[in-house]
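Go through this:
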Amino acid sequence: MKYLENITSLLGKPKTVSEFELYHQFKLLRIEVNKLEKKIAQSENEKLLMENLLNTTITDLKESNEKIRRLRRKDLRQKDKELEIKANQLKQITESMTSSMCYMDKTYTYRYVNHKYEQWWGVKREDIINKSVQEIAPTIFKVFKPIYDSVMEGERYDYEFDTILPNGNRMVTKINYVPAYDLDNNNIGLYVYATDITDNKIKEEQIELSRIELDKKNKVLEQYIQSNLQLEQFAHIAAHDMKSPLRTITSFVGILEKKLAGKLDINEKKYFNFISQGTKSLSIMISDLLQYSKVKSQRLTIAPLDPDKLIKQILSYLKFNIDEKNAIIILGKFPTVIQADKAKLSQVFQNLISNAIKFTEEHKHPIINIKAVENKTSWLFSVGDNGIGIDDSFKSKIFEPFKQLSTKQQYQGTGLGLSICKRIVEDHGGTISVEQRESGGSKFVFSIQKDLKNKEPDSLLD
């Protein structure tokens, strides 16, 4: 039986299929050996034969076992090579990461840091590898240990870290703490990833500053709008309340002038003329103020209208002014029907035509061209004249309230007419502008949007 013990020691415990088969063969052989031993007791020759057979079998088993060992060593070398390749690939990945990364074991000892970690935090890996956080940075360790402990228990932790780097630059990073596990799912440490979000953070801060600035400007704008609404309300109320006392003053001045007729000297007549002209100017201003305050307070009443008929009606209202200046009116072709607020559009045409008549030199006969053209979205109307014209530097100012480019002695007015026109045109979804004509004079062009619908006013006045 000592042969069997030798075989057993050679084979050991079977670990592979091949070894198991050999082991099984050995068991079968053992049975056969038992049989042979019985026969050997009967015959010495059989005993010698058995010994030879056993020796041969042991030799074969030794060779087979060595072959198995060689195969196992080759397999292990192959696996080691594969593991080495994967380790190198993993190292290349971690070293080329745009994020900082490190690995600490359960004792909070650094076992690995990548290139970005060295670059960002100004350290060398040989100075921190195999050293604990507590040893390198005790203050930081004390602050972050609760986080480390919770991650070691399987929790993730994320937060933003805003700091100044050793080179003096600001860096905002998003830090991720991730538990590390072995193949048996046992916690063996933690990974720390840091991603640079400085640019995004700066943009967020700029957006927030812009939002705050916008909020401030919105508040200023709201105050401005509110003050304008209050100003419009004041203008409406003041102009309305001033009409009655002004009429009284005008009436009594007229009565007084008639009673004193023939008794006034030249200077006194001049004074009465100043009063008369002043009350007349004030009356015009009050009327314009009332009109100006109503432009935004009254809702548009959009309805179909015939522009040709409307303009001819306005010309009939202005017949006295036209005849007084011997003005020539040239009418172009107009659309049959448009959608607009008739009363307000009448104001625009009346203001522009009146200005064209008024702002003409004394020795000239006003020549006024009124035309209309159509584009895809709007109707374009123009009123051209041969008057005094408008300098290019004043083109953007003439539509502002109370802006007058001429003296009151030359041309009487309040400077509200064109601002009223601008408001009305904009309410109709259009724009208004002026250009200098090559032949002299000005040409006002305004648009009226097609397919207009009734809408509420921007503000309501009592």
About this structure: The radius of gyration is 52 Å.
